[in-house]
């Protein structure tokens, strides 16, 4: 028996992937899809055999829905999240969770008040290679963690139009750095700008400083002719590298290089399975609303740093 009735808000490329995965899960039944574009909503509904809506509040009134995932434009995420929570639905909000940290905080407050499950779509947390990467660090396999570097570059994505590369792309690695170092950065220094886009930054280099002099470097852009998604950690005993896309990993020590082999698994399916299980079991998710808020605060600190050309503290508006 299907235990959770699901709706997906946003019928673009990523929203359709959500519908596909939920259809593959034994615990969920997707009952409706909502998109402000009626043609897009209807196309997704016909493909997957659902009811289509252009107004989420109307959908909540007419359908029995337990939980929703939000795959809309970044500037619309907070508004749709608040509507879903007011309707007392559990929610997964795709990154960056909101267009600002202030909006993200309001979402967290409402979810707490309504006692609804809230998680944020930082899919890389569910990448099996990242989980192995984190385990190696936690077990001391690389000695003391000294620094980490992330590279997330690609051509200009057609879908982007309401935020720049920091909040849309680099925010994945901002979250991963918090996860890997198991703490919040003390300071942020960034350089960012635009070579091809008039409204938003299309490249950024971000440095995060952690305790004990440890440092993370993040490079993100929409300028590179092909896609690269990589993460490297340097320790006192070894260096570990992973490719987010292929999930391949290497471990380099003084005397050898190891390339352990693992089966590839779809991170989105692992993420949405976790979302469902947490709701059914009443458990806290791996990625909380607070994680989303802190990543946004750091992203906003990076943008302020790039504007002011100086180090910025990543909380509130303090500099």
Can you describe what's shown?
This protein starts with a strand and ends in an 11-residue tail after the last helix. It has helices at residues 13-24, 38-48, 56-62, 74-86, 101-114, 128-138, 165-181, 267-281, 289-308; strands at 4-9, 28-34, 51-53, 67-70, 90-94, 118-121, 145-153, 187-193, 203-209, 215-221, 228-235, 239-243, 249-252, 257-258. By secondary structure, it is an alpha/beta fold. The chain folds into two domains: 4-123 and 269-286, NAD(P)-binding Rossmann-like Domain (Rossmann fold, 3-Layer(aba) Sandwich); 125-265 and 297-308, 2-Layer Sandwich (Dihydrodipicolinate Reductase, domain 2). Helix content is 38%, strand content 24%. It contains nine helices and 14 strands. Strands 8-9-10-7-11-12-13-14 form an eight-stranded mixed sheet.
Tags for this model:
319 residues; six-stranded parallel sheet; 2 domains; single chain; Rossmann fold; Dihydrodipicolinate Reductase, domain 2; 14 strands; globular; alpha/beta; eight-stranded mixed sheet; 9 helices
